[in-house]
Amino acid sequence: MKPNRQIGIAGTVAAAGVALGAAAFGAFLSRRHDGGGDDAPQFARRSNHGDHALVGRTVTIRKPAAELYAFWRDFSNLPQFMENVESIAEQGGARSRATWTIKAPGGTTVELRTEIVGETENERIAWASVEGSDIETRGEVTFTPAPGDRGTRVSLHIEYDAPGGAVGRAIAKAFQREPEVQARHDLKRFKMLMETGEIATSARRKSETRAAKQQENA
Amino acid sequence: MMRALTWQGTHDVRVDSVPDPEIVNPRDAILKVTSTAICGSDLHLYDGVIPGVIPGDILGHEFMGEVVETGKDSTLKKGQRVVVPFTISCGGCFHCKIQQYSACENSNPAEKQDMSATLYGHPMSALFGYSHLTGGYSGGQAEYARVPFSDVGPIVVPDHLDDDQVLFLSDILPTGWMGAENAEIQPDDTVAVWGCGPVGLFAVQSALIMGASKVIAIDHYPHRLELAKQLGAEVINFKTTDVREALMEMSGGIGVDAVIDAVGMESHGFAVDNMLDMVKQKVGMGADRASALKQAILAVRAGGRVSIPGVYGGMTDKFPLGALMEKGLKVNSGQTHVQKYTKPLLDKIEDGTIDTTFLISHRLPLEEAARGYKNFREQQDSWTKVVLKPGTQKEQAA
């Protein structure tokens, strides 16, 4: 973790928590099913996951895996449903390096630099932060066919070294951007976008949508 | 700016000037509202027993009007007259595809799903003009309304049918119909309906259309019982008659085959448990009063069906679970899958099988909406249904 000089330690701690949730990353497939006596994913366990935080969630989306995979694999699409991700710039290269610009409290931003660390076409995309990133994280999204014509089960896992642990998450939570909540909402928005072509809002005017309000606050 | 009925607090609703709605998402349409009704479930909001209502919220989930603007992915055309289902449904998710529209997974905004997910285990779908638990969408008791997923919900109505004939396709007619359908009526059945409000009356009408040999309607308002009688029901006044005893006798000592609770969470009644529930509701312990449902479960025959179109939001005390299990009852419930029923019911209105206009007791301009709420609540016998007519003056509305 590199402190960001401009926003100070507390800000960085909060921002990192924020960023992780906002970006809604994945976690380690290899660790997902470790250490339990049942078939539930690790993120559903009651016990702690050690000194790192783990966030995970599954939704079923009524679309073929290939379509969902293709959308996700183009990282520049992700800000459409990841509310706190301002933009993702792809640098390309063999490991598809990308820089995520993530909104943080106080109108600041932090940068997450990632590369793809594993992928199987139409099934799985895994990424991890690289040297120079403001945040250390690993993420993974998997696409598994659901039974019958129910579409695809999309699981998102994030593992990150929570800076400041509980304190960092508490600060992030105060800003309504607690990673787990944010990841869950982002995944729901992904489902909405894929199934309906839009993201549900009860705003009566364009200026009243959450996206518009965030723009205003930034 | 437009005029709209806003919720300000318990027993405090006002017509205010608010900014016009606009197209926000591609599948939206904007309606100029021509008719909008006050629903019995609006009274739950009026009475302050539904959580998640915020001062300034525009109420109203029974409305229809003229399409004045369409988003690029709307299939509606300007000038069309449409009735809007109160349930907001995307049409593309698992639940919509199996016609469980009121369980739509995508209409309630992501950030608003947590409250109901905590309460019920799963998030609710969105409804117009109700709580923020159900999305916080502005309702139709206004001059204009934004209608999301306008390619799925609204049904275009032919010009030869006037508003009064089709408005109730938005909620209470399909809700009464689904209430009867959920009673799984067989020929020769005797069916009892608690509550002769709009939904109860439409459930009576629907049950008879579905072939019930006898429908017994239960209420205490003489005028409402009279309406039920006119539809073809036998009636029981629970204030003067022992309901369970009467139902046993009227069903030949067997018990009724199916029961429909069209009352819901604010039921009246003299039972001790109901009084306790009422006190708890007042002091914020929030137990749903469910005297009608409890009575219905005791009255239905063994192996019978219990249908619950009446609205409940929370918990209830002293629920006769033993009777439910020991008698082997089947329970069907839920918010109405309105989109599933609009077309078949429109057909029944067109061919004259169903008439809904008998229900309307009052037509008011939107500006008088607050008076409509007050009287609908306080004079339930004579104010059976209030229809608001935005854009009209008093004389025209009547």
Plain-language structure description:
The complex is a heterodimer of chains A (218) and B (398). Chain A is of the alpha+beta class and 218 residues long. Chain A has helices spanning 8-23, 29-32, 65-73, 165-174, 179-196, 210-217, and strands at 53-61, 85-92, 97-103, 109-120, 124-129, 137-145, 152-160. By secondary structure, chain B is α/β, with parallel strands linked by helices. Chain B has two domains: 2-171 and 336-397, Medium-chain alcohol dehydrogenases, catalytic domain (Quinone Oxidoreductase, Chain A, domain 1), CATH 3.90.180; 176-333, NAD(P)-binding Rossmann-like Domain (Rossmann fold). In chain B, strands 3, 4, 5, 8, 9, 16 and 17 form a seven-stranded mixed sheet that branches. The two termini of chain B are 26 Å apart. Residues 269-276 of chain B have low confidence and may be disordered. Chains A and B meet through helix 5 of A and loops of B.
SSE topology sketch:
The complex is a heterodimer of chains A (218) and B (398).
Chain A: H1 8-23, H2 29-32, E1 53-61, H3 65-73, E2 85-92, E3 97-103, E4 109-120, E5 124-129, E6 137-145, E7 152-160, H4 165-174, H5 179-196, H6 210-217
Antiparallel strand pairs in A: 1-7, 2-3, 3-4, 4-5, 5-6, 6-7
Chain B: E1 2-9, E2 12-18, E3 29-38, H1 40-46, E4 62-70, E5 81-84, E6 87-88, H2 94-97, H3 113-120, E7 126-127, E8 144-147, E9 155-156, H4 163-166, H5 172-181, E10 190-194, H6 198-209, E11 214-219, H7 222-231, E12 234-237, H8 243-250, E13 256-261, H9 272-282, H10 291-299, E14 300-308, H11 321-326, E15 330-333, H12 338-350, E16 362-365, H13 369-378, E17 386-389, H14 394-397
Parallel strand pairs in B: 10-11, 10-13, 11-12, 13-14, 14-15, 16-17
Antiparallel strand pairs in B: 1-2, 3-4, 3-8, 3-17, 4-5, 5-9, 6-7
